[in-house]
Amino acid sequence: xxxxxxxxxxxxxxxxxxxxxxGLQAPKxxxxxxxxxxxxxxxxxxxxIVLDEAGIGYDYCDVxxxxxxxxxxxxxxxxxxxxxxxxxNSDLDRFPAGTPYKAVVFAIGAxxxxxGASGLTLEAEEARLRKLIEFCKQxxxxxxxxxxxxxxxxxxxxxxxxxxxxxxxxFADLIVVTKDSNKDGRFTKIAQSKNIPLTEIDYALxxxxxxxxxxx
Length: 216
Fold this sequence. Notes:
It is a single chain. The protein is α/β, with parallel strands linked by helices. The chain has one domain (6-214): Rossmann fold (3-Layer(aba) Sandwich). The protein has 8 helices and 7 strands. The chain has helices at residues 6-22, 43-54, 66-70, 112-117, 122-138, 160-168, 186-194, 207-214, and strands at 33-38, 59-61, 86-88, 103-108, 142-147, 174-178, 198-201. It has a 7-stranded mixed β-sheet with strand order 3-2-1-4-5-6-7, with helices on both faces. Helix 2 links the parallel strand 1 (33-38) and strand 2. Helix 1 (6-22) packs across helix 8 and helix 5 (122-138) packs parallel to helix 6 (160-168). The longest helix is centred in the first third of the chain and has 17 residues, at 6-22. The radius of gyration is 16 Å and the shape is globular. The chain starts with 5 loop residues before the first helix and ends with a helix.
């Protein structure tokens, strides 16, 4: 067994512990799935690598609009450009272009450099996320909030990173965080107050098994 694969086999215990803590069952979302960033940090790249490792197809856009999400698989044919990234990795044999998404996975973590490259202010990013989550709720699209940046993507109340957490986590159908991201129990408090299943993992690679459970 490689050192990189070892955390996967430790994950099942972590999943059982955290979901039992809240007395909730691990939810199922299904495919197809869209991945995106909440705050434009590089953590969304890690998320996409995890889904590749899990063998799960996905579409990705760093700043999808509601109209793009509504267009389903293929994101309406939008092409990448400066400050705008698009990857279509869904299984088009199973999910032809236009197939409605069943899940959107948000990688939470703020980067002022990343937002600046996309022409976004912090307020504009919050507004974009709010509209996208409202669309998901209205159309019964599963919202999965992921925080794998650890302490480096946290901060005091009102900081950029904390505002991204506030924009997404309380509205999620499932929250998945690394233990380093939740040292102060902030995500646990959100999950308990909003009755949201929460799973803690030791490493980002722990997402592999969760993705296989939730997104298939």
